[in-house]
Amino acid sequence: MNRPAFRGIFRTSIALLGAAAASAAMTTAASAAVPAEGAHGAAAGIQADADAERGCAVVYFDLGETLVHTAEDSTTGYMPGAAAYLRELRERNIEVGLITNVPSSWGETDAERAAALKKEVDSTWKGSAPFAWEDFGDRILTPRTEAERKPAPALWERAKENANGCRLVYEAETAEETEVAASLGYFAYQTGLPSRPAYLPARVIELLAHGS
User: Fold this and answer.
1) Pairing relation of β-strands 76-78 and 68-70?
2) 42-52, pLDDT tens digit by residue?
3) pLDDT mean over 34-48
4) In whole angstroms, what is the distance from residue 23 CA to residue 138 CA?
């Protein structure tokens, strides 16, 4: 994605934060699921139609320095505001997921690599509240090969294949990753920038879920 296009997406997100009326300025198309063939594909299509009708969104995050911070002593903990933000999304029934780089050698499947990631983070965790792994379910996507590591588009594309017609959001601290996500149809939000909310407000995500 070129810089002018990214600046346009950035201005759109700020407009949405400012007033509900500005939601009409949204230009990023909603992502659609790719149904499988046969009976499973028919079921996926029905589910996608139902999700689209009621409005839904899935918010994917990078992990390190987006939700989790690694300190100089190698301990890990929540980024400021991250625990409260995840709790708010949970209370609003907004699904969340992770799109994060780990060594592909950590497992043969997403589930195996996710288990290794949890063990790695938990072993250095510092804080009274543990990381909310249960919020993410099986939506923890990691590279199957080193070629799939971000900023390669593979992980975002895999998330789109399982979106069931829901609007997709991606939040990360790096412009490079948010640009790639936006180019693939996600509403992308760069976290940690001054003079704006640390994370995309939940009320904006709800507007996106209903096609605003």
Assistant:
1) antiparallel
2) 444 434 444 44
3) 38
4) 31
Task: Give the pLDDT score at 54.
Answer: 55
Q: If you average pLDDT over residues 183-193, what whole number do you get?
A: 97
pLDDT value, residue 29 = 31
Task: Name the strands in the sheet holding 95-99, side by side, starting at the edge strand that comes first in the sequence.
Answer: 140-141, 95-99, 57-61, 167-172, 187-190
Q: What is the mean pLDDT of residues 107-114?
A: 97
Structure tokens at 112: 């195996």
CA distance 60 to 138: 12
Domain coverage including residue 202: 3-209
Task: Find the CATH number of the domain harbouring 9.
Answer: 3.40.50.1000
- On whether the CB atoms of residues 180 and 151 are closer than 8 A, the answer is yes
Count Cα neighbours of 148 within 13 Å in the Cβ-side half-sphere. Answer: 18
Percent of the residues in the chain that have a pLDDT greater than 70, as a whole number? 74
Q: 85-120 in b/e burial notation, b at 16+ Cβ within 10 A?
A: bbebbeeeebbbbbbbbbebebbeebeebbebbeee
Mean pLDDT (whole number) for 60-81: 97
Residue 63's φ and ψ, nearest 5 degrees, are -100, -65
pLDDT at 211: 83
From residue 210, how far is each of 5, 53, 87, 137, 187 by CA, in Å?
A: 24, 8, 21, 23, 13
Q: Measure the CA–CA gap between 121 and 76, rounded to whole angstroms.
A: 7
Q: What DSSP letter does each residue of 141-163 carry, written as one string?
A: E--SSGGG-TTSTHHHHHHHHT-
Total domains, the chain: 1
